[in-house]
Amino acid sequence: MRFVVITDDPNTVKLMGPVGEDDIHLLLSEVDSVIRHARKDGWRTKHLKLDDEESYKKLHLSYRDRVLIKLDSKAELKKCLDAILTVQQDIPITVVSENWTTPQKWEGLIRVVPLRAFCGGIASELEKAAAMRSVAHLRKIFSKADRVLLLLQDDPDPDGIASALALRTILGRNRTTAPIASFGHVTRPENVAMIRDLEIQVLTITEEDLNEYDRIALLDLQPFHSPQIPLSIDAVIDHHPKRTGYEAKFVDIRPRYGATSTIMTQYLTASGTQISQRLATALVYGIKTDTQLLGRDTTPDDVDAFAKLYPIANQATLRKIDRPQIPRDDLVSFAIALQHASIDGEIIYAHLGPLSREDVIPYFADLCLEIEDAQWSVASGVFDGMLIISIRTYGEGASAGETTKKAFEVYGSAGGHRAMAKAVIPLENIPSQYLDHELWIKERFTYALFGKEPESVS
Ligand SMILES: [Mn+2]
Q1: Would you say residue 135 lies in a domain?
Q2: Cα 239 to ligand 1 centre (Å)
Q3: What is the CATH number of the domain that holds 10?
Q4: pTM of the prediction?
């Protein structure tokens, strides 16, 4: 590629970054000092009169070149463009200007970009300095402690686990001096697979055990998540909505972010901390699960962190832990549910009956949405005395969360996002005349979606 810059401003070549080995960087200018500066930066240069057609002809400019023009005088700019475009029309030309409008005859031939468009990275550069300071602060708080507790939610998820692993790395500690723990334990099969395959130990502790630690850090949660968490804590790093009413020496909460793993990745990169394959794999999985593969609630920061980590992560391990594992005991329920799945226009209903594990219901809801022409899928099953309903939609019409609320809120807990929702209903709350759970779900759901009052069942 040949990058051609035409300018009378010595700073313009800086916009292009360092001169690479593969590309040709060519500066064209009428100003000697500009040419001298560019040469120092490794550019090829050519002194020419900017309105001289013959000079452009000799350069054989073509669609393969990338031409950047920055000339402060509009008259000069116009003369320069006149000369170039007379010689050759199909050159990709970018003009750097705050207030120049392309004359009609050149409409579609020239792209005009204000100088500030090149400075988009400034905010993220400032953010890096902040991340660097945060790491220094964290290291200071935890430096003198014998034992540091990295505390997670009661049912630790990949984002929390990965974040704890990252903080342990940042603090230069190991599983003895900074164990990862929870008051509950890891239950979801994918999460169990994650800690097994990445050999991450997550301890289950009690409130008394807290006394064994000099310092406590909360990852992916804040105090009040469970009553055992002390209200005076050393560090809180999280992305859930901010809560107040506790004390902490260090707080970094960014509700905008899709994952705490994103914050941790920024810490790691800003502080120049080496990211191992194991850590990268954990963080990728953390971001992936919390954002549903960069779908829901994702910021450019999450995408950026994911892109940095993904090449380092172990793809085979990622595939292995991410594979949904259906319990053998539930295979029969699956078969029956699929066979009896009812298709009501664009809504697929599938009822799994009693199950040995709850998480197969959302999995089944995802699966049913793959059925041809399905716009909605409503999967349900009975687990632990509760009727659990998972709802999925492509999200073009009504919101899954709103519809689910309207249908089931009165009977139990119900809610969710635009594309996915869940309801949990104690079996005793289902009106007694409905022996058939599926029929009841259908009636409630069509009522919520279409406003059709259910005919009463006698
Ligand atoms: Mn999270």
Answers
A1: yes
A2: 6
A3: 3.40.50.720
A4: 0.68
Same domain, 396 and 308: no
Distance (angstroms) between ligand 1 centre and the Cα of 376 equals 27
Please tell me whether residues 18 and 155 are part of one structural domain.
no
413's CB contacts (< 8 A; 6+ apart) are 423, 424, 425
Domain count of the fold of the chain: 3
Separation of 398 CA from ligand 1 center, angstroms?
27
Count of C-beta atoms within a 10 Å radius of residue 9? 17
Closest among 66, 65, 29 to 46, alpha carbons compared: 29
- Gap from CA of 159 to ligand 1 centroid (Å): 5
455 in any annotated domain:
no
Domain range enclosing 414: 328-450
pLDDT by position in tens, the chain (length 458): 899 999 999 889 888 878 777 889 999 999 999 999 999 989 999 999 999 999 999 999 999 999 999 999 999 999 999 999 999 888 999 999 998 988 998 888 899 999 888 776 777 788 889 999 999 999 999 999 999 999 999 999 999 999 999 999 999 999 999 999 999 999 888 899 999 999 999 999 999 999 999 999 999 999 988 899 999 999 999 999 899 999 999 999 999 999 999 999 999 999 999 999 999 999 999 999 998 778 767 888 999 999 999 999 999 999 988 766 677 877 888 888 888 898 888 999 999 999 887 878 888 898 899 988 899 999 999 998 999 999 999 867 899 999 999 999 999 999 888 888 999 999 999 998 888 899 999 999 999 999 876 665 44
Residue 96 has which token pair? 């750097």
CA of 80 to the centre of ligand 1 (A): 54
Q: Order of strands, edge to edge, in the sheet holding 148-151? A: 202-204, 180-182, 148-151, 215-219, 232-238, 247-253
